[in-house]
């Protein structure tokens, strides 16, 4: 399964919810009947967040202590790549039972045959995290279940805008490519089947979506990191002056990224670099979407 090929089959906002969870390091469980397809989909999801470093459970580490050593560097080096973990189907049960902290994990699982097994799984997961996402592939359908987050109006503006740009920019590019070919085809007497093949850009369309997505995600990440550097310095200054704050509009203009509300950037910074700068935003809005801000590892 390829993420960009199933976008059209997802219900409205489901893709945005998946992206939100990826960005905010909420653990994602992918269920299905075919382990190979599920594992391939996990790889696709992992590739979407290219600015993090992927580790594979039972390949790069096998114990809770080894995992803690991997993420220890996040506390020491701000510029180090943040960690996320991919856990294939065949060792997912071990991962859930052995690792204490599964935030920022992508976990593949076969669909339980009995309903009570799903219930038992939820109980096990809730002991480790109060927020998680299920993506379920069953009988050709795709559904998602979100636990622990109550989205409000506007919470998914960033994610919705990214997918809107993907759709619009891809369509524009395909139209331009077809127009160039159609102008040439009009001057020749080609077979209809050949013409149909020449103007078929389905493979190119998927590649375009990937490239546009990566561009938009990188823009958001880079803008958020610029905001992080500014707010870090303001936080230091605030310890001295006690009045070093900044307006959300000024901050967005300064980092040259205005495609999402400042609350979304503050939420991302909190999860990515474990720093809560909401008190530095002058507007007085609570700079976290949905729930109260908590430590990523708490």
Share of residues in strands: 5-15%
Question: Which term fits the overall shape?
Answer: globular
Compute the number of structural domains: 2
CATH topology of the largest domain: Rossmann fold
Give the name of the CATH architecture of the largest domain.
3-Layer(aba) Sandwich
Q: Which class of secondary structure composition applies to the elements?
A: alpha/beta
Low-confidence stretches: 284-298
What is the typical, i.e. mean, pLDDT? Answer: 88
Walk me through the topology.
Elements: H1 3-6, H2 14-23, E1 28-32, H3 35-48, E2 53-56, H4 64-76, E3 83-87, H5 92-98, E4 105-110, H6 115-126, E5 132-138, E6 141-147, H7 157-185, H8 192-198, H9 202-241, H10 248-255, H11 262-273
Structural overview:
The chain is α/β, with parallel strands linked by helices and 298 residues long. It folds into two domains: 3-147, Rossmann fold (3-Layer(aba) Sandwich); 157-280, no CATH class. Helices cover 52% and strands 11% of the residues. It has eleven helices and six strands. It has helices at residues 3-6, 14-23, 35-48, 64-76, 92-98, 115-126, 157-185, 192-198, 202-241, 248-255, 262-273; strands at 28-32, 53-56, 83-87, 105-110, 132-138, 141-147. The chain has a six-stranded mixed sheet, sandwiched between helices. The longest helix has 40 residues, at 202-241. It is globular, with a radius of gyration of 22 Å. The two termini are 33 Å apart. Mean pLDDT is 88; it is low at 284-298.
């Amino acid at each position: 399964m390829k993420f960009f090929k199933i976008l059209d089959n997802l219900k409205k906002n489901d893709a945005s919810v998946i992206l939100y969870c990826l960005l905010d390091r909420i653990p994602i469980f992918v269920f299905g009947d075919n382990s190979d397809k599920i594992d391939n989909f996990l790889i696709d999801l992992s590739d979407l967040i290219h600015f993090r470093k992927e580790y594979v459970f039972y390949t790069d580490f096998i114990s809770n202590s080894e995992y803690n050593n991997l993420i220890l560097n996040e506390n020491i080096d701000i510029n180090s790549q943040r960690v996320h973990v991919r856990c294939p189907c065949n060792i997912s049960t071990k991962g859930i039972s052995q690792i204490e902290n599964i935030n920022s994990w992508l976990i593949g699982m076969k669909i339980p045959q009995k309903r009570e097994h799903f219930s038992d799984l939820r109980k096990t997961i809730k002991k480790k995290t109060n927020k998680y996402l299920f993506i379920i592939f069953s009988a050709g359908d795709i559904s998602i279940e979100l636990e622990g987050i109550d989205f409000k109006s506007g919470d998914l503006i960033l994610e919705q805008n990214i997918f809107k740009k993907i759709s619009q920019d891809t369509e524009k590019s395909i139209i331009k490519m077809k127009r160039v070919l159609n102008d040439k085809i009009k001057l020749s007497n080609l077979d209809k089947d050949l013409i149909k093949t020449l103007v078929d850009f389905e493979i190119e369309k998927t590649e375009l979506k990937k490239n546009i997505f990566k561009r938009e995600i990188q823009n958001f990440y880079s803008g958020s990191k610029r905001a992080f550097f500014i707010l870090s310095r303001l936080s230091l200054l605030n310890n001295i002056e006690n009045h070093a704050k900044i307006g959300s509009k000024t901050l967005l203009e300064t980092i040259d990224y205005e495609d999402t509300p400042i609350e979304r950037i503050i939420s991302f910074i909190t999860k990515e670099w474990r720093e809560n700068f909401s008190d530095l935003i002058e507007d007085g809005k609570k700079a976290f979407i949905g729930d109260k801000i908590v430590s990523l590892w708490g």
